[in-house]
Amino acid sequence: MSVPRPLPVTDRDSAAYWTGGANGQLLIERCNGCAYLIHPPTGFCPVCESRDTAPHAVSGRASIISCTVNHKQWMPDLPVPYVLALVALDEQADVLLATNIVDCAPETVFIGMKVQVRFEQNEDLWVPLFAPVESGK
Amino acid sequence: MNYPEKQTAITGIGQSKISRGADKSALGLSIDAAMQAIADAGLKRSDIDGMATWPGDRSDGSGFSDVGIPALQDALRIEVNWYSNCSETAGQFGAIFNAIGAISAGLARHVLIFRTMYEATARKTAFANALNVPGQRVRGGFQWYAPYHTYAASTQQALYFARYVHESGIKPEQVARIALNGRRNAGLNPAAVYRTPITMDDYFASPIISTPLRLFDCDVPIDGSTAIILSHIDAARDLPNPVTRIEAVGSNMRYRNSWTQLDALATQGQPKVAEMMWNRTDLTPGDVDVAELYDGFSYHTINWLENFGFCKRFEAGDFIGDGSRIALEGELPINTNGGALSAGRMHAYGQVHEACTQLWGRGDARQVKGDPRVAALSTAGGPLAGCFLLARE
Ligand SMILES: [Zn+2]
């Protein structure tokens, strides 16, 4: 029982984000001029106005800044509950990623929790998901 | 300060039957609301020279907005000098803000503004299909959410509410008062869709949709249409209803305009909108007699209590307390018709209708005592926020 993830239409700017997982990389656009991480990717640095940008592999570590446990079964085969979260990248706190927190019990997820990316292939895309960082790592 | 919105006034209101399943089409409901508003303003169809709506015809099976200006304009055979729908505005009040601009620019004198929703019928038929069409990929800003099973605003916006709870420490029983207050007021409103009283126990027995949201924190999808007439204030002086001007608007966008990257998670995009509004008037929060605060979710209303300045940041829970302060007979009556939580999801336009109802003394059993003259109105949702004050002369 499951519902396929609704997948995005990718374009020149966003394709790296949704395909970096093929190589195990979370690719976030970065300004080559000032190293600012630009998300969503636009090809323009809002800090220094450079157009010289490129996808950059970040650590994939992040902190949960908000999370919700969805209990409502919106469609017949949708497994519930599941966690929707916004996470802030360790490298730059104003890069927020929506994601699901996986590989843990939903009720154990909390704001401030440290998480680490993993990828789930869906058709030709690799959807970034996050799971709690295992203690000791 | 002579800001141009003060030269506009709401001169008439209309509303179709609001229901959990209409016996006429979305267009039929829109015609009912529009004709009622035109008549209420003491006007004829031929007096209307502008039209505005939000967000315009989508006809996407969701019922979110099945009627746009072309359909209603043609049905009513209205001839206009100016018309506009645009969804990229400061919340749902964008249609009103645009109409203020048109009237101020001399493009129109009487603008018919409407908002029609047909979600009750849509959810009985095509809703699940509209949520997820297999194989169809998502474009635009929501591509960043869609892969994560974010099928409804309740799941996505729960992220803002969870952050608000985290930062404010508000208690669930304080949140519940918004729903209980709405239902109590709806009991006095014959047009509301849910009128049976609910208790605190009922609230906590209602299912969790997406933490911290319970069912009773979520507004009720309905079939219905609301219309208002916005006129130049000079014209308003010759019409039957008490002159009720737009005192000040808040319509800015000074945050990141993004549902994922919003840089004001706990407050959503409201604080700077409210700040703009207060900067355009000599009135203060203490002058507000009745507040019709957007309640797509109970947390939006709570946010607005703070962002309008009725109480301090993260103190709305204590302000709400046992609910007496926000009740009909309290010092700041809110959502006096039941709000979207109980009267039905008219997407803030129900609140505009109710504000005029109160300012014009038509509230009957739910009429706020003391001759209310100033009403505060708001919309909300992540980065989207808009607000205005209505003041009866
Ligand atoms: Zn740069």
UniProtKB/TrEMBL annotation, chain A:
The keyword Translocase does not apply. This is DNA-binding protein. Residues 18-52 form the ChsH2 rubredoxin-like zinc ribbon domain. It holds the Pfam family OB_ChsH2_C. The keyword DNA-binding applies. InterPro entries: ChsH2_C (IPR002878), ChsH2_Znr (IPR022002), NA-bd_OB-fold (IPR012340), Thioester_dehydratase-like (IPR052513). GO terms for molecular function: DNA binding. It comes from Sphingomonas paeninsulae. Residues 57-120 form the ChsH2 C-terminal OB-fold domain. Keywords: DNA-binding, Plasmid.
From TrEMBL, chain B:
InterPro entries: Thiolase (IPR002155), Thiolase-like (IPR016039), Thiolase_C_2 (IPR055140). Keywords: Plasmid. Gene3D superfamilies: 3.40.47.10. GO terms for molecular function: acetyl-CoA C-acyltransferase activity. Pfam families: Thiolase_C_1. Residues 257-384 form the Thiolase C-terminal domain. It comes from the Bacteria. SUPFAM superfamilies: Thiolase-like. PANTHER family: ACETYL-COA C-ACETYLTRANSFERASE (PTHR42870), NON-SPECIFIC LIPID-TRANSFER PROTEIN-LIKE 2 (PTHR42870:SF1). This is Thiolase family protein. It comes from Sphingomonas paeninsulae.
